[in-house]
Amino acid sequence: KADENGKIKISPQIKSLVYKELQIKANETFEAITKKSLKDKENITLNEVWALWHQERLNQKLVQPKTLAGEEGRYRNHIQKYIPQETLIKNIPTNLIKNFIDSLYPIGSHKRIAQSVKSDLSSIFKYAIANNFISPDQNPMPYITIGKKGLEEEIKILKEK
Question: Counting beta carbons within 10 angstroms of the beta carbon of residue 110, is it exposed (0 to 12), middle (13 to 18) or buried (19 or more)?
Fold first, then answer.
């Protein structure tokens, strides 16, 4: 249809369909570009990401040396022992991390370490996402929670005293 000036008038329904198709094509193009940049770095290991993350924190000097030493110790003494260094970061499943964190506080005395390890791993995965090593849907950390495990044992010990 044409209006009184001779311009072609497009109905809102057709405009909506055209915009929807354009949005779908834009999304597909964006995904293709994003997946290409992810494929370039898809074989990066947890150890490589940790080293890059740790080095960035050293370079920024926003964190106290004591904190960096603690992170390094937790990585060496806990994370590396449970998750092999050559494990690809994209292949680390949620249940592996959950079982690992659960194993850190069987009687409640290591809850602080479990919380710190969870925080470290969460930061490492966020760094990996920010640097396009993995996509956000490959991050297992949002599904990891630290429960009240060990509380029953502590109550039992207190009752015995």
Answer: middle
* Domain containing residue 9: 1-40
Per-residue pLDDT tens for 126-149?
999 988 888 888 888 888 877 665
Instruction: Please state, in angstroms and rounded to a whole number, the distance separating the CA atoms of residues 73 and 93.
Output: 23
Answer whether 131's CB lies under 8 Å from 123's CB: no
User: What are the residues facing 8 on neighbouring strands?
Assistant: 2
User: DSSP string of 98-116?
Assistant: HHHHHHT-SSSTTHHHHHH
pTM, two decimal places: 0.66
Q: Are residues 20 and 76 in the same domain?
A: no
Number of domains in the chain: 2
Same domain (yes/no): 67, 142: yes
